[in-house]
Amino acid sequence: MHTLKYLLRHLFSVALFTFALTALSYAQEHKSQDGQLKQLQENLKNDYFSFGLLVQGLADFQPERMAGYNGFKASKGRFKISGIFDNQFGYNLQATMLKSPSILDANVYYKPTVNFSIKGGIFKSPFTHEYLTGAGSILFASRSTVVNQLGTKRQVGFQIDTYTSEKTFRFTGGIFNGNNYSGNSNDDNKFLYVGRIESYLGDDSNQTKLGVSIAHETKDAPGAGNLSTGYIGKQTLLTTYASLTQNKLLLDGEFIHGWRNPDVGPDSNPYGYYFTAGYLVTDSSRLLIRWDAFEGDNLTQDTEQILVGFNHTPNSFTKLKLNYVLPTNDSIEYSNFLAILQVGF
Fold first, then answer.
1. Are the CB atoms for 121 and 156 separated by under 8 Å?
2. Measured distance CA(310)–CA(14) in Å, rounded
3. Which of 136, 197, 282, 339 is deepest in the core (most CB within 10 A)?
4. Closest CA to 320 of 145, 59, 79
5. 285-295/249-262 β-pairing
6. Peptide bond into 101 cis (omega under 30)
7. Which pTM value belongs to this model?
8. H/E/C letters for each residue in 110-160?
């Protein structure tokens, strides 16, 4: 009974918080919003200089916690500056005000043709589908477990990106330092190689996306690697993904498998996947459900969880995300309630 009361109390807190945020969002008039967006684009966005901002507030409640605390925090606080000159030479700079290192992206690119570009600097390596989706556009409060564990994430390096003339196929490939973006130097003289092929079929309302990526590297530096410290050896990662948008229905999934061959110790094969189904209940609201699973192969804890989400976009500036996370291998007391209010442009 005590647990039930505790759970209901947190449910009420999240519901009250959600109601207040939604009421504030609806208080604005649509015509005024459209005018503000147009004026903002005229003042802050053009070919040579474009400024963007993303701010997220997070409410996080859990009846029984294994780590962290219940409460509120600023989960994202970012700005981005970008531009392109003569439709050929471009730049991107993105930074966060909430953590160190503060620089997230710092790169330049050259587009000699419409369907081909070369990029160098710090940016997201072209591996996982969900990680390449921007923080303000992901479906849930956070990315899936397997993407967080096995994704190659941001790196320092160079890549090429090319489309077919009809833009139905895309190839992206790059060479990177392999030690994420924590430093501008390569700390082991080894490299990470990533290749990605994607296919796009249909239009915006009825579109199918298919993709496969492979990443290979030799690690030779203590502290390198996402799953364990002091990993020395070879690692190959393979991911496949599919995304289907059919009118109001969304189906989205990704599978990542790893082959780790350390110089000392046994080989391991961590893997994981997620599958998401979503439905637009209104033009601005979507219901979501996700199965999220990860097998660490004795390198880290195995997890399985079900996520239920509700996303509401009252206007072009704001978004509300509500998540309920139920771990399938723990009791309901370890469920997690998350609410995000986002402002971005």
1. yes
2. 13
3. 339
4. 59
5. unpaired
6. yes
7. 0.86
8. EEEECCEEEEEEEEECCCCHHHHCCCCCCCCCCCCHHHHHHCCCEEEEEEE
